[in-house]
Write a structure and sequence with these properties.
The chain is mostly helical. It contains seven helices and five strands, in the order H-E-E-H-H-H-H-E-H-H-E-E.
Length: 188
């Protein structure tokens, strides 16, 4: 027969074990969803990608193309991955340094909106895929001509070139259009 102290000690030990198990399950689920609970890397053909890169890429997909088709969102994700690789930066460094936010000087893509669960899954898939799966064939930049023209016509800050002028500018810099996916043109 156990005394009250022994019984109390066993209850505390069982509760501690249960809390530890729940914490483990929570951390593991956060890692699998690309959350910030762990920076454990996932692997791809390009090497390891931190969970923060999954989150940062999903934020870009959500911010730049959330209302678009899966093919368009996938192409946007590949372009971000390609740009980060070319600049020898992590995706987090490219789009969330010093913090996540709108596109602007030094930040080529917007990461202002929180990632959706669908875009976290897509980001993880793109980061894990071999480079040969890239539907943009190595694109480093993109734009949607209709949106570009509308933003220029509205006089929005940062939008000086309509789609025709932007194409001429990029061609003058030696870039070429590599792909069209849905409404977007992809360039490098």
């Amino acid at each position: 027969m156990m005394n009250r102290e022994t019984e109390f000690g066993l209850v505390v030990a069982a509760a501690t074990l249960a809390v530890s198990a729940l914490a483990f399950v929570w951390l593991r689920s956060r890692r699998e969803l690309g959350g910030h609970a762990s920076a454990a890397p996932s692997t791809s053909a390009d090497g390891p990608h931190a969970a923060d890169d999954v989150e940062a890429l999903a934020r870009v997909i959500t911010s730049e193309a959330d209302r678009y088709s899966l093919a368009e969102r996938r192409a946007i994700a590949w372009t971000v991955r390609n740009r980060a690789r070319k600049r020898r930066k992590t995706i987090t460094e490219l789009v969330c340094t010093p913090t996540c936010g709108s596109q602007g000087p030094g930040r080529p893509f917007s990461s202002a909106r929180p990632a959706t669960s669908a875009n976290l899954i897509l980001a993880r898939e793109v980061l894990a895929a071999p480079q040969s799966d890239d539907p943009t064939v190595g694109a480093l930049a993109y734009f949607e001509p209709a949106v570009q023209d509308r933003l220029v016509a509205q006089g929005r800050p940062g939008y000086r070139f309509d789609s025709s002028a932007l194409r001429r500018r990029w061609e003058g810099q030696g870039q070429q259009q590599l792909a069209t996916v849905g409404a977007f043109e992809f360039w490098a």
